[in-house]
């Protein structure tokens, strides 16, 4: 096995172009586990760790954030928790401190597992993936177009993820996950909600309950039409929202849970995250 260790982003793109068989590795918390279990024997690894710009973040001119693909979860939580509360909440549920120290959003995206925890908040917040190749340059892929199948994303073999872009929160955001225990667990299903009060809009993301992470678009449209942003949350609206989120899922029965249970849990999480968000919204955006 070849081990490639480019020192610059340009060299990493060149290596990905020269060797379509190469497997990028950032934190290695997915790649190394697959190798240890002999599930995957890459002919070449492309270690992105020397490229320090992947571990930085900055504010874009429009106020949104550009977060490097290789920024580990611990730093997202510590440095961006106030601006990206939904993403930070999901990051706090990933694995253990050791995994959060190494694991990255770029790696979660690269694996594109329907059970990856960051996909739901990325969808809810309207994140955009910055991908790049030596041959074609940069392209910006909205999160909802990124996932194309079970553990499959839309990137070409010569493309690498450089960063993700996401607006700073302008309203409450929540992430909720059901697992068979409290930590170190693959989600049975997950749900994320983001309120955009100035736009009178709600974003959603469903995890681990369909072949790909997905938005509950009909549920978002329902809330945009029915929410009274200046009043209390109507229980019937919250219930209908939960029903529409449940209907947006297409889960399977597997070792972690049944499809019926996942649908039920999603409706509950949707209602709860809406209630929590509404409480914060009515509390002038401050979490209680
Ligand atoms: C004990 C344990 C517990 C875990 N718990 C959770 C959990 O609770 N929730 C969860 O979602 N995940 C969990 N995981 C999985 C893993 O930690 C996450 O998916 C993490 O985000 C992967 O990030 P990484 O940087 O380690 O990725 P890596 O292992 O380095 O890479 C993962 C994939 O992304 C690709 N990749 C990496 N960087 C790039 C890039 N810049 N461009 C293109 N492709 C790239 C790799 O080729 C590979 O296919 C767990 C793993 C372990 C071992």
UniProtKB/TrEMBL annotation:
| Amino-acid biosynthesis found in the keyword field | no
Task: State the source organism's domain of life.
Answer: Bacteria
List residues of the FAD-binding PCMH-type domain: 1-171
Classification via InterPro entries: CO_DH_flav_C, CO_DH_flav_C_dom_sf, Diverse_Substr_Oxidored, FAD-bd_PCMH, FAD-bd_PCMH-like_sf, FAD-bd_PCMH_sub1, FAD-bd_PCMH_sub2, Mopterin_DH_FAD-bd
Which keywords accompany this UniProt record? Answer: FAD, Flavoprotein, Oxidoreductase
This protein is called CO/xanthine dehydrogenase FAD-binding subunit
Q: What is the lineage of its organism?
A: Bacteria, Bacillati, Actinomycetota, Actinomycetes, Mycobacteriales
